[in-house]
Design a protein that fits this description.
It is an enzyme of class 1 (oxidoreductase). This protein is an alpha+beta fold and 256 residues long. The protein contains eight helices and seven strands. The strands form two sheets. It has a five-stranded mixed β-sheet with strand order 2-1-5-3-4. 30% of the residues are buried.
């Protein structure tokens, strides 16, 4: 727990960037303290009062927000060097000055806005969806075992916020690793009674370049995941499936 703010002033140092091709720079702000403030409320105050610590008028900071309840994932950013959600990070829990930066794993659009398209491209690569026959009513789906349903519910909490990619040492400009979040998604779709029919195809896609072989099991992702998703057990589960899939491919599914 950070020490209580005594002078009723919040000090922030925010890394800014005018556009994707500009060099980042830092700008300091001092704003009035209010109890129960989160990072979003601090950014909103600066947007309404765009004056930096030196008293100079400045351009309002750009960032994204939507749900404000840790569901949409778009307010992910580095706060005191830790990737987290700005909506659920309270000022009272932070050491000052509070340092805010965009997550550098992703291309910066402007200031704290990042482009997370790569995450959705990764989900497309591993076919992270449940195929159906059409848009018409095909009746009730197959029932799931209760234990499997509870496990699947935990996996389904992922909201592609991207903080696990920011924390992972294997996600960088020298690697094409898709990131830790893909493991739970592959496991989730393969556990579904309908999705498991395409599990082999899904595993094959994840065994390609940028797939599961890029993980070094550092477990940084588990430490920062805001939803507590069982990523480590998902990594082990998907690796087992990949081993079985390799045997099937080598010997032929008819002989396995």
């Amino acid at each position: 727990m950070a020490p209580k703010i005594e002078d009723k002033t919040i000090h922030l140092i925010i890394e800014r960037q005018k556009d994707p091709d500009s060099e980042p720079y830092k700008e300091a702000f001092s704003i009035p303290y209010k109890s129960n403030m989160n990072i979003i409320s601090a950014l909103m105050y600066i947007r309404e009062n765009p004056v930096n610590k030196d008293g100079e008028q400045t351009i309002p900071i750009q960032w994204e927000m939507s749900c404000l309840e840790e569901v949409c994932g778009i307010c992910s950013m580095l706060i005191n060097d830790v990737p987290r959600q700005a909506c659920s990070t309270l000022i009272d829990d932070l050491e000052q000055p509070i340092r805010i930066q965009p997550m550098r794993t992703f291309p910066v659009v402007r200031d704290l806005i990042i482009d997370r398209d790569s995450m959705f491209d990764s989900l497309k690569q591993v076919k992270a969806w449940i195929p159906i026959d059409g848009t018409y009513d095909i009746g009730p789906g197959p029932r799931m075992n209760e234990n499997k349903r509870l496990m699947a519910y935990e996996l389904s909490k992922c909201f592609t916020c991207g903080v696990c990619l920011e924390a992972c040492p294997n996600v960088n400009d020298k690697s094409d690793f898709m990131g830790p979040f893909v493991f739970p998604q592959v496991r989730l779709k393969n556990a579904h009674p309908t999705g498991e029919m395409n599990s082999g195809e899904r595993i094959d896609s994840f065994m390609e370049d940028g797939g599961l072989q890029g993980c070094s099991n550092s477990q940084n992702c588990v430490q920062v995941c805001p939803k507590g998703i069982p990523i480590t057990t998902s990594i082990a589960s998907v690796n087992r499936e990949a081993t079985l899939q390799s045997f099937k491919s080598f010997f032929g599914s008819d002989h396995y």
